[in-house]
Design a protein that fits this description.
Layout: H1 21-33, E1 39-40, H2 52-63, H3 76-90, E2 99-102, H4 106-116, E3 122-126, H5 131-139, E4 143-147, E5 149-152, E6 155-158, H6 160-166, E7 170-175, H7 188-200, E8 204-208, E9 233-238, E10 251-254, H8 257-270, H9 276-287, H10 292-310, E11 326-327, H11 332-337, H12 343-354, E12 356-357, E13 359-360, E14 376-379, H13 385-401
Helix pairs in contact: 2-9, 3-9, 4-5, 4-8, 10-13
Length: about 400
């Protein structure tokens, strides 16, 4: 036998990013392994139990033999339940053929791009935003067209002027209301203007609605419900947040039938089908969603505790969002107090000085030119109230002490 061919990975892999919050997890785990206490504000996972009726339904499905292949688009009972749940909450008429079940919400991003974007097509997407948007656009050869946000006393506003400027070069628009990492929500006027731009420039829209139900007051609105939008919008739905099912990997794409059929075809090529017995658990979740209410109550307690304790940290500016489980404070003055100008170095110093582990703005897509990057994200979904208080107290004392 001859010598093995020298390893040469595909060139396109150089365009593939990652979810860099997991790198923060690694650093936090190493710090904890060395015997230090860590306060995990870094990863948007949920440390609360999946509701019991969902777990029982999964076990019943296994016991009943639902452990083999099933239809690539999903089992009919789940597609019907999703069509009803998504449609009724958003004022849309959806049927089973408008639904393609997925192993989580994340696959909807890549399949939306694969289905509707050709190489070179422009894609508008938010930054700061979920980093997989940017990664997948570049991996599949699209032209990145990022748009940003500006901080206001009540949260963040989308830079509509940048969207309007780039829209003529775009084919797709990715829109994440109830946004990760900012926790922000569009005003009605802002959402209506984005919809007008999409219609005017004939853009396909991915509406990432992972946090649609994760709100503490008010009512969520889907951009798909606005005039001219249902026929051009794919909704990303996931069980991960609403039902504390992050590791179960269950979600769906909802939208116009021709696109959903193409996405289902990708399902068959990529994973054959979403795990059969997990889909039956999803039916139980939608038929009786009452178990999600205690989860939301606990997350509200954590939000209020985080906001109250963060208010005692010197040099921090933030708004309290009514949805998601994130706060995104500006920490420029706090950084000055402890002698740091780089937000990544500040995060490392915070971990080693206080045990506080969090992501920075740089974990959520490349910053735009001249953007203020001195922000951090605090996720309170994986840490209890007592530890929230203790961690932020240590953080406040460290900042208050200042550089020595």
């Amino acid at each position: 036998m001859g010598a093995p061919q020298q390893l040469r990975l595909a060139d396109r892999l150089s365009n593939l990013g990652t979810e860099t919050a997991f790198a923060v997890s690694k650093a936090a785990a190493e710090w904890a392994t060395a015997g230090n206490e860590v306060f995990p504000f870094h990863l948007g996972d949920i440390d609360l139990a999946t509701p019991r009726n969902i777990v029982d339904a999964m076990q019943d499905a296994i016991d009943s033999g639902y452990t083999g292949y099933c239809a690539g688009a999903g089992i009919e009972s789940l597609r019907a339940a999703l069509a009803h749940d998504i449609g009724s909450a958003r004022g849309l008429h959806l049927e089973s053929n408008n639904i393609a079940v997925q192993p989580g919400g994340k696959p909807v991003i890549t399949k939306f791009i694969q289905t509707l974007m050709n190489s070179g097509d422009g894609v508008l997407y938010p930054t700061p935003g979920y980093p997989i948007y940017e990664s997948q656009v570049e991996y599949f050869g699209g032209t990145p067209l990022p748009y940003g946000y500006s901080m206001t006393p009540t949260g963040f506003e989308i830079d509509l002027a940048r969207i309007e400027e780039q829209a003529p070069k775009a084919r797709l628009l990715i829109y994440n209301n109830l946004q990760n990492p900012l926790g922000c929500e569009s005003s009605r006027e802002e959402m209506e203007r984005i919809a007008e731009i999409a219609v005017e420039h004939n853009l396909w829209v991915l509406s990432d609605e992972a946090y649609f139900e994760m709100r503490y007051s008010g009512t969520s609105t889907s951009i798909a419900s606005l005039p001219g939008m249902s026929e051009r919008t794919i909704i990303l739905y996931t069980f991960s947040k609403r039902f504390a099912m992050t590791g179960w990997r269950l979600g769906c794409a909802a939208g116009p039938v021709p696109v959903i059929e193409a996405i289902a075809k990708l399902n068959t090529n990529d994973e054959s089908c979403t795990t059969h017995f997990v889909q039956h658990a999803g039916v139980a979740a939608l038929n009786d969603p009452s178990g999600s209410l205690p989860l939301l109550d606990e997350l509200r307690r954590r939000r209020d505790t985080t906001a109250s304790a963060l208010a005692d940290v010197p040099g921090v500016e933030f708004a309290v969002p009514e949805a998601t489980f994130y706060l995104f404070p500006r920490v420029a003055e706090a950084m000055d107090r402890v002698g740091h100008t780089d937000v990544g170095e500040f995060a490392t110093a915070a971990l080693q000085s206080t045990g506080m582990s969090f992501c920075t703005r740089h974990h959520f897509g490349r910053p735009l030119p001249d953007e203020d990057d001195k922000f951090i994200r605090l996720a309170y979904s994986g840490i209890g109230v007592e530890r929230i208080e203790r961690g932020l107290q240590k953080f406040a004392e460290w900042i208050d002490k200042g550089a020595k």
